[in-house]
Write a structure and sequence with these properties.
- The chain has about 300 residues and is an alpha/beta fold.
- The protein is built from 9 helices and 12 strands.
- Helices cover about 25% and strands about 20% of the residues.
- Strand 2 and strand 3 form a beta hairpin.
- The termini are far apart.
Amino acid sequence: MPLPEFNKLQQNKTAVPDWAKYMKDSEFISYTVSYKAKAYFDLFDEYLYPCAETGDIRYYVYDPVKHGAPADKKYPVLMWLHGASNSLDGVKCIMCCGAEQYATPKYQQEMGGAYIIVPLANEKRLQNGELEGVWSEAYAAPIKAVYDKVCAEHSANIGKKFVMGASSGGFMTWKMLEDYGNFFDGAMPIASGYVPDDSALDRISESGVNLFIAHGRHDELAPFDKCVEPREEKLRSMKNCLLFFPEWVYNGDGGIASVHYGIEMGQHCMINWVQHNLMFDDGKPADERLPRGVTGWIRDVSELE
């Protein structure tokens, strides 16, 4: 299905999604995130990685030491992988992929500091609306090379390694685990329409990586009952695996999330809630297993021996 050109459209903030019929009388629809977006792009430096196979890869890096973190410590490295069409927005992809809020002073303090890498796929919109150059297995080796390059350039300060992404970025997160599972210490596939086969999941489980899998049960674009539910038992059997499969995806104000740009995708946009740190504005966590949200999970994994 061709995705709309979001930067040319206004969000419909009066849309009533089909899933609204399942809401309780006490629940309400929320159309807006409550965190401050598009405010931290200048904290990231832009680079280009030469690559003949996929085309040169533009990527952005947040360096905690450059922004005041102690130079004698090690910090986790978070690679955030964007969803389909997000790279067409250039630097705004830092927001869309989920990385922006994790560069804020608040989240950096909660994590104990972290490097952030945001690579961009070489996407192009064709005349029929379809996308060309989206994430595929061909990108695995090049973006791993980007990861290695950043780690080499900051080797004295590199700690645990994470990869995370939503939608097609969730697909690519799984692909990175399939190819380089032993490299990563933590991973977060979010709202992915793809789950690896059992043999690949077994390899990933035995690699020792800490998994945090997030998927809403009313996801409009990657339906839970088709994409995740048939594999749920297998996922639950994996080692070091936290499953977050909420009934609803919320915004920070406690409302059920709706995002409508010609198609409804609020429940698919789990990444927005992740940028809320899976915390509500009143300080209540989305899940009692995550009292300090995603930043707390990252810090806990980073401090594991």
